[in-house]
Write a structure and sequence with these properties.
80 residues; alpha+beta; 1 helix; 16% helix; elongated
Length: 80
């Protein structure tokens, strides 16, 4: 983050898009942004030169299959 701004990158076969999330927006939508399996970002598209940004206004969760829970493993056996 830079001054609390969150940057995310989306990429597909056509290229990349940067998501720019300002601190107030992230504070409001933090839970959705962090916990949703699939995410819809809504905002304003800005294009400058060859760079595309989406200035995010809000996030919406998109329903999707929940992955199976995996078990965390600790490979550290305590010996150095």
């Amino acid at each position: 983050t830079a001054k609390g701004v969150v940057f995310m990158t989306l990429e597909d076969e056509d290229g990349q898009m940067n998501l720019v999330v300002f601190p107030k927006t992230y504070a409001r939508w933090r839970t959705v942004a962090r916990d949703a399996i699939l995410l819809v970002a809504v905002g304003k598209v800005e294009r400058r030169h060859r760079v595309t940004n989406l200035i995010v206004d809000r996030f919406e969760p998109m329903p999707g299959p929940r992955p199976e829970r995996s078990v965390s493993r600790d490979f550290f056996d305590g010996r150095s």
